[in-house]
Design brief:
Length: 209
Amino acid sequence: MKKSVYSLVLMDSVVKAVDEQAYKIGTSRSNLINQILAEYLCCVTPEMRMREIFDSVTEMISDSFQVQRQGSASLMTIKTSLAYKYRPAVNYKVELQREPDDFIGQLRVQIRTQSQPLINLFNNFFIWRIEMEKRCFSEAGFDNYSCELTSGNFTRKLLNSPDGKNGIAISEYLMQLDRSMQLYFSSPADFPECISENEYRKIFDIYKI
């Protein structure tokens, strides 16, 4: 979104109030003034677009996950635990791009554990998951699937939904991914891959995420 430099004459008290509020929400003076004017004039800013997406995600998944909004308008952290022994925690971090292109942002999934056997299970699940998602992308004619798997961390870029329903698309993806992980960790040896893959294919066919 294009920006230009303009000079404004403001009261010192107004600038002081703007600076205090900008500090509280972790943004700059210029960005906060831009947001205030945009809301007053009914213009859509990146912050408004991201807030709308995150509000949609929160509404859809709050019954199943612990949602944490960060100081940054572009970041949301979602927490859950796995049905495995001492119920290890898993963090889902969704970070949106201010100016999305083919991708709306990225998702990072991290397991909170020092147990190497548990990390190995996490990695093995996502090795399967990556191959399955790549296959779905390839069959649909997409060649821009992008992900990374390190020890206990999975990161992938999220496609910008063609119909603009990014909040719904991200929510559906998170819920399906979590269901797959829960199935896998409840019984790795008997993991019903076909069920998880069919669920994901339905979501991909609708939202392309």
